[in-house]
Amino acid sequence: MRPGLTLFEGQNGHGKSNLLEAAYMLAIAKSPRSSNERELVNWSVAETGGHMQILGVGRNADSTVQAQIDFDMTAAESSNNANHAFRKGLRINGIKRSATDFVGNLNVVFFEAEDLEIIYGSPGRRRRYLDILISQSNPAYLKSLQRYRQVVNQRNQLLRQIRDGISEESELVFWDERLAYEGALITDSRRRSVDGLNQHAVPAHQDLTNGDKLELEYQPRITASSKDKVNIGNMNAEMIEKKIETALPSLQRREIAQGITVIGPHRDDLEIRLNGNRADNFASRGQCRTIALALKIAEAVFVTQSTGRTPVLALDDILSELDIERRKLVLEAATKHEQVLLTATERAILPDNFLEKADIYTVMNGRVTQDSIANANN
């Protein structure tokens, strides 16, 4: 597809969202919607077995990258495909890669209706948002995150063994050190990324509103009390590590009793405030949608500055709940970026000056066809 704005037009249920989801999977190596990727497979394919592939080629000024995801499934023996053989393979430029080496070769910023959960949802949803953002920009972060999760899992197992009288408390020393070290790297990376995101999200949000004030604040859980608010703005990773190490001894009895690690970046949160109030408690659905859009626009700038590559913006049905003026503002902000993929149920939802510049494709029953009439206007 060419640079600029591309519109995928079609009725709901015909595959528009699936197309954008596939593009996003080429950036993050997994589905943003489903934790069970078997559910991505069409039932007719599941019944007969077969091979499925997502393939995309990204071109920048100095490089071309081909990202490929392959799925293989054996024929179904019943209506339930949960237990059928299912294989997934990842390749970059034809070479097999692990997920950690796959993520970030192509960069895509994806907006969907469920992104309102960044504001309304649990702290885990906001942590996931940050983790995906940073992993696209810094592949080393994903490896660090995997190490940290392994440390937490091992430490939790040890805590339960101590509680059950199988292991000794002295064995925690090693895992406490690893938790503090790996956790500090994650917290420091997230904090710096939120600072960068803040620089772009605040003005983007102001452009989309009548001057409402958006604030993002990373809230780490690195002290013994969950009520303590710690400002880590001037801390580096070593200082954060020391803070975690200091808190752990006073939490040991509680952690052993519960069998879980109660501090560290797996307990952190991103607080989003609108005009001084927590957005999840006080903002309307429309205001939260605007916040989510501002975050995505800021995310695109963040990825560009971090990687030197311009990401594709994949915006799924962003216009339907906006008034005409807000649609113009959103499209003006989005189309400042090199390539924008947009879905809508009808093209008339686009203001004329954007419609004239757009490449338009029709999506029907899973088939994508280029609209020659709209294309002739380009």
TrEMBL record:
TM annotation in the entry: none
Span of the signal peptide: none
Residue ranges of domain RecF/RecN/SMC N-terminal in the record: 3-350
MF term (GO), any: ATP binding
Keyword Manganese: no
Gene Ontology CC entries for this record: cytoplasm
GO biological process: DNA replication; DNA synthesis involved in DNA repair; double-strand break repair
Keywords, alphabetical: ATP-binding, Cytoplasm, DNA replication, DNA-binding, Nucleotide-binding
Cell compartments where the protein resides: Cytoplasm
Predominant cellular place of this UniProt entry's protein: cytoplasm
Family under the similarity heading: Belongs to the RecF family.
Protein name, UniProt field: DNA replication and repair protein RecF
